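Section 5: illustrative case.
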């Protein structure tokens, strides 16, 4: 479950990074794109996957969220176990139970499952909201760093490595971004 959540966080971070980079790229003044000859354009590439894998800050976000939701996850697991125990008791003793007792236990199981489903839906929604908040903060920092590198080194465009079918390592700024991001952490 932890690996799935970390994988989802990585995917969410990668998706948000692509959106940030594309927003940055689309914010480039049109006059520069129209007037600069293709040979004069300086284009950089950033590998979001490498950025996420190499950033302690991204890993810390995953750990922070895991810790933040650990208690709720534990409560849901114990509720699920309690419901399962009641279901097993109902199946085992169904034949010897009185109608009132059986009906009461069936209702408890049904109500427990319904409440658990509601708690799980709220949990997923809350995790998603928090992941988005933390991802937005992370990529706000990344965007500032990318912009500072682009300005200092006079890049006209920085694109996501996934969007480029080919690039030379000379234009890869991922390590520069990682270095600055790690200094900020």
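Designed sequence:
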């Amino acid at each position: 479950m932890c690996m799935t959540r970390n994988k989802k966080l990585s995917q969410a971070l990668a998706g948000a990074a692509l959106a940030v980079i594309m927003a940055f790229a689309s914010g480039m003044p049109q006059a520069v794109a129209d007037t600069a000859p293709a040979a004069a354009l300086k284009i950089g590439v950033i590998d979001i996957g490498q950025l996420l894998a190499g950033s302690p800050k991204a890993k810390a976000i995953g750990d922070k969220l895991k810790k933040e939701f650990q208690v709720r996850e534990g409560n849901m697991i114990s509720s699920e176990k309690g419901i399962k125990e009641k279901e097993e008791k109902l199946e085992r003793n169904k034949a010897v139970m009185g109608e009132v007792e059986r009906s009461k236990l069936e209702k408890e199981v049904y109500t427990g499952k319904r409440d658990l489903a509601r708690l799980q839906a709220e949990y997923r929604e809350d995790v998603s909201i928090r992941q988005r908040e933390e991802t937005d903060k992370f990529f706000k920092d990344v965007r500032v760093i990318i912009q500072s590198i682009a300005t200092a080194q006079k890049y006209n465009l920085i694109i996501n490595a996934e969007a480029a079918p080919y690039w030379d390592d000379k234009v890869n700024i991922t390590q520069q971004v990682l270095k600055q991001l790690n200094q900020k952490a």
